[in-house]
Amino acid sequence: MSVKVNRRDFIGLGAAFAATGCTTKPVAVLAAEKPEYHVFSRVFQFIKDYERAAAVVKSCGYDGIEWTARPKGFIEPSLAPRYLKAAKRAAEGAGLKAESLIVSFLRGDDPMAYDIVSAAADAGFKSFRGAYFKYDPKKTMQQNLDEIKRGFESLESLARKTGVKACYQNHSTYNPKIELFGSVVWDLAHILEDFDPKYVGVQYDVMHAQAETGPSWMHSVGIVAPWIDILCLKDFWFEPNPKNPKMWRRHLCPAGEGIVPWAQYKGILEQYSLRPRYTVHFDYDFPTDEKGAIRCATSDLKFYRSVLG
Q: Which terminal residue of the chain has fewer beta carbons within 10 Å of its beta carbon, N or C?
């Protein structure tokens, strides 16, 4: 399971990169590649019909869609083996790619995991993203990491069997009582060093990285760069928590209205020659009617194209 990239060397390059004020290029920049913008389909689930949802997403100007195969998603998990091909055809019929699937299971050996992912492979999906590992406060850090690593081993095993890459998204801590693994990204990198990026990948979310660690988020991109498969896009700002005004909470907002430094982010992505494949998330108060959804999704895409290409 060894990775071709030497993690310590990669960290050293990232450190040198940061120390020079982000002015040097530790990794050669590849020729310009037109970005792909996909949609995380969750907010379009009110449409219910695959073909209509795909048509709406295409009308907004997107290149692809991430279908959800989880409870209350576009496809119920138990029905995934039957309907994944139909969802794939609906996307492609509208002129969209459908490469990544969002599922609800956590481990590769969870019940139904193999059935869902093997069906995804048969339908032509390339990757899947599942649930989040959590820290158990009753266990030591090493005990937690050992257990989480076993979870990743099960995901890699499933990926090797099916040919569909297992991806994990870094997600900021939204509830003090639920300690999410991977929120600071460095813990995720610690686990990933023993896994082949051909089978285990990352959906890197810059909003969650910044919300969790503040300005130091910029150093987390490089540490997981070899494993990044998709770049999740969303924006936010901090606001006082009404339950405790001395504390701050995230406020998700439309693209460009928040504090994510998009121009700086683009520069860092270029430094690490990351493939420009984005998935746009709409975690703010997104409309649940087609006209409103089209307005917001189109506006967000217009902003992202203006700053990321």
A: N
